[in-house]
Design goal:
The protein is mostly helical and about 100 residues long. It has one domain. It has five helices and two strands. The chain has a two-stranded antiparallel ribbon with strand order 1-2. The relative contact order is 0.15.
């Protein structure tokens, strides 16, 4: 098993956190709305009501106990790591209003 520092480096190098190619093209954003994960279940409930569908049931937090260190990324990542993440995901930072 890798230590946290190794896992962070693997994620940064592998760009596993970059999602904008899924919903953007060279012409811009391809979807009507982009939701933050933390808002997803509330937004899904509103959408279901609007469409006349049953409201989704939020699944249990099955793996919530695995993450022991709850510090925000800005406290865990080095400045160099934060800069690399920002450079790779700047589009998402801007679209979602994330602070650098």
């Amino acid at each position: 098993m890798h230590e946290l520092a190794e896992e962070i480096e693997l994620a940064i190098e592998g760009l596993t956190y970059v999602n904008f190619p899924i919903y953007c093209s060279t012409r811009g954003v391809l979807v009507d709305a982009i939701w933050r994960y933390k808002d997803m279940w509330n937004r899904l409930r509103v959408l279901a009501r609007r469409l006349g569908l049953p409201e989704p049931v939020e699944p249990p937090r099955a793996k919530g106990e695995f993450r022991k260190d709850r510090r925000p990324a800005r406290e865990v990542l080095s400045k160099s790591q934060r800069d690399r993440v920002y450079a790779a995901a700047r589009v998402e930072f801007d679209l979602l209003g994330f602070k650098r």
